[in-house]
Amino acid sequence: MQRSTTPVEQTDPQVGLAVSTVIFTLRADDGFGATDPQPGIWLPLVRRIREPYDGLWALPGGPLGAAESLADAASSTLETTTSLRPRYLEQLYAFGDLDRSPAERVVSIVYWALVGSDEAKRTRLGQNVRWFPADALPPLAFDHRDIVEYALWRLRNKLEYSHIAHAFLGETFTLSELREVHEAVLQKQLDPANFRRQVESSGLVLQTDELRTGGRHRPARLYRWTQPVTRPETPSPGRSTSRRPTTSTPTTRQQSEEPA
């Protein structure tokens, strides 16, 4: 019996694959003069300039290239849109609800990154790239608010049992600085004495012989982590993490054209 060579008609629409990143830092200003009384968790957003959701803010992201890994795509998009190259970059979750994008079916592999406040100040800001407090976000495109809330939930949970706060601090830090990170992430005040006892008994930090001087208060003891924090996933060796030369400023369209 001769088999039919007639191709089967493809009725299902194509599914797009994108990579987006949630970037958290500890800061008290947006880089343009707006400040909060206390440092909090902030994240950069990119304004869309095309439909769907023209004019709304969104997470940095872009389509996955056929020849790049997920981690390469996440790092490339971050460096292109914000100039950031975070030490901590971890895959968060895959978001693929059927109705998350009104234009076409798009599945987003989302990473989350943590950067220190000094590194955050080097972000390439502009009309379409700005920092926002995580607890006072503007309306976001797609399901990006749900993604941010999930990333915050993950951050708060990991803070309780790991040394993830290292990404917000330098190699050495005072217990007051560490407590400030915990208070910002958990959004509650912590008793200094109880916090000190918990941290010192956790095995996550070691006391050094150095002191932090120069402030209004007496010198404070510096601590360091027992283990360094590195990227759980890093771009492929020998490959550039940027799709475009980083010496030039991206155009408005390059900054804002992200899929879901």
TrEMBL record:
Membrane spanning residue stretches: none
Boundaries of every NrtR DNA-binding winged helix domain copy: 168-224
Full protein name: 8-oxo-dGTP diphosphatase
Domain (Nudix hydrolase) ranges: 45-149
Source superkingdom: Bacteria
Positions of the UniProt region annotated as Disordered: 217-260
Short name of any one Pfam family annotated for the protein: WHD_NrtR
Biased composition (Low complexity): 230-260
